[in-house]
Fold:
Amino acid sequence: MVDISEELIATLKKKAVTLRKHIIRMTHNAQSGHPGGSMSAADIVTALYFHVLRVDPKNPTWPDRDRFVLSKGHACPVWYAALAERGFFPVEELLTFRKLNSRLQGHPELGTTPGVENAAGAEGQGLSFSVGLALAARMDHKPWRVYCILGDGEQDVGQTWEAAMASSKYGLDNLTAFIDRNGIQQEGRTEDIMPLEPLAEKWEAFNWHVLTIDGHDFRQILAAIEEAHRTKGRPTAVISRTVKGKGVSFMENKIKYHGAATSDDELKLALAELEAQEAAI
Amino acid sequence: MTAGPWKMESQRSYFGKALIALGRRNPNVVVVGADTTESIKTIDFGKSFPDRFFQLGIAEPNMISVAAGLAAAGKIAFAATYSVFGSAHTYNVIRQNVAYTNLNVKIFCSHAGLTVGPDGATHQMNEDIALMRGIPRMTVLVPADGPETAKCVDAAAAMKGPIYCRFSRTNVPTITSPDDDFAIGRARVIRDGSDVTLIGCGLMVARCLEAADSLKRAGIKARVINLSTVKPLDTATIDRAARETGGIVTAEEHTVVHGIGAAIASAIAANHPVPVAMVGVQDVFGESGEADELLRKYGLTAEKIVDGAHDVMKRRGQGR
Structure:
């Protein structure tokens, strides 16, 4: 079992609340964007950026950095928030999200935003892109690893499964995929739109090492990453059970907040809830 | 340069050999394929450099994104298959993962145009130039023959950014020499003339030369331009041709909708408008048949180029 201190968990929990507050403010300020799926992924992104990833904010293109790929590009508010908090660019810049002339595009753009590693928006391309990165690392005998977050809506996309096959063909044990299993996509519940279950069995059938965790439990997230690192000869898929809109009671599990910002009144309520959570840690 | 007799050679063979030579010189070059690697000769690269070759199966969107990931990690990634799969089937992947990202992905596609032959319309990709030239940051190449295909490989590797290059399944006349100058973005005047200009790409360049011979017999001096780069368009060479010859015929093994004819017409409309005639596939699907039969049936012949020359010269006369 991984040795994880209470102190580390508390630090990560606080950071995740900070990211959620940024997500709420950014999408409110833009009056558009995708808060729900950003908040469901916030704990995984926090664990990666504030404990796992070897990255250098002062040298974002350091060749030996670990690669983080966000396949579900609409969740970029959580990515931008993590990058800003990690020091890749000023936190104040977050409020330019989705505005004209901003470096923080509505969906990620490679080459514009320091720390962003891929372009995404059209779903289902990120895992394939991660396969290319992982193949390159292996070819060059480099130790850096690739972490990709996919949405569960993206499990509808055929290319996701093309990438799943290629990953196991090449035994990419330097690739870890988190599936943000929040159960909701743009127009409804995933099981109504296009049933995915049994999802873990699907990934197992594609010859991945599969773990199912609570995607809001830092001990489980970090343990899964440790297990992925120990797993040889196969990529690891971490099916992370999450709550869309996690952290704000009136947003949780609401289809509406896939792609809707809060109103002025909702903003105050949401921030008050998050600040209360922060104080309780 | 006059027309023929020419040696008929395979652009795929030149492509495969050029890739291996490039691979020897540059260890950063990698190749991805999609179950067409024997046909388009990338399998030979795989045999020479097994660690730098990835067979990804019938999954072209994945192939393109994998190439993009390899390029993002510093590789020069060649993705090669048939043009219908490497352009239309993968369009939005190319747009988002290759062009928007401005990565070093070089998409080389054989089996472009009608001359795929008996496989029929599903495999005869007559719309790829239109698709690819519409994407920002994309460079589009159409080599005239085998030696030029090899030059495209080297030039693509030397250039930063995405490239789409299309060529034929069928053997084509070798009209260029390995010693000829080649540069991405430069159209090459391969025959001088002052009465009319014939601009072709791919295997239609040879037909432009045949048409120029035929026009010469009628006392008409036709300039011939090999447009091996469709984008960025060499507007200086095209404008000069418009100014100096007063009429342009374009010839492409591709639909006339948004192909090279359309690109040239819109360029000269902005600078020096002259009459234009477009020889190409007239907004229809192809069908099964032998390559030469198809070219004749769909009007991709030297005779049609000659007709086009007479047409633009007549229209120019009326306008003056």
Notes: The longest strand of chain B covers residues 248-255. The domain at 188-319 of chain B is CATH 3.40.50.920 (Rossmann fold). The CA atoms of residues 150 and 196 of chain B lie 30 Å apart.
